[in-house]
Amino acid sequence: MNQLKSAREIAWALSGVGDLTDRVEALSQVVLGLLVEVEALRDALARTKAGGTALPVHGGNDFPCTARELVEGKAAYPTAYVDTAFVPHNAAGPSGGIDKLVARFFPEDSHQPRETIMLRRLGFSRVEIARFLEAARDAERYT
């Protein structure tokens, strides 16, 4: 990861102060931070409602934080946050940590609708996902 910016540096860059590179770096840092937050919330909800966790995307290389003592006895959100915040640092396997995080939101195949990733992680079958996609395509024709 690049050198992290402070809150003040990010605010200045986002307000247009500095050059384009500073703004892009600040935006990248904000987007990655938001991806971690959103994923932690999704995972916490899955843990709370389903009693488990949403399935990871990269199989054996996308795993929770190895310091399990950090989350022993913690509620769903703190546990999900620690596990999700660990992902961008996890360089195991053929993809880097940021790749693993982004893959939780966007498909590897650009022809695959983005929604299918989360539906699959939530345990929907191929038949159910196909039915969802059919309904979504039908909805695009509503007037």
Summarize this structure as a short list of keywords or feature phrases.
mainly alpha; 143 residues
Helix content: 40-55%
Listing every helix as H and every strand as E from the N terminus to the C terminus, the arrangement reads HHHHHH
Quote the beta fraction: under 5%
Number of helices: 6
From the helix content, strand content and strand pairing, which structural class follows? mainly alpha
Distance between the termini: 46 Å
Give unreliable regions as ranges: none
Question: What would the average pLDDT be, to the nearest integer?
Answer: 86
**Total beta strand runs:** 0
Radius of gyration: 18 Å
Fold and architecture overview:
With 143 residues, the chain is mainly α. It has a domain at 37-105. The chain has helices at residues 7-14, 20-50, 76-86, 97-103, 115-121, 126-139. Helix 1 (7-14) packs across helix 2 and helix 2 packs across helix 3 (76-86). The longest helix is centred in the N-terminal third of the chain and has 31 residues, at 20-50. The protein is globular and about 50 Å long. The mean pLDDT is 86.
Summarize the helices and strands and which ones pair or pack:
Elements: H1 7-14, H2 20-50, H3 76-86, H4 97-103, H5 115-121, H6 126-139
Short structural description:
The chain has 143 residues and is mainly alpha-helical.
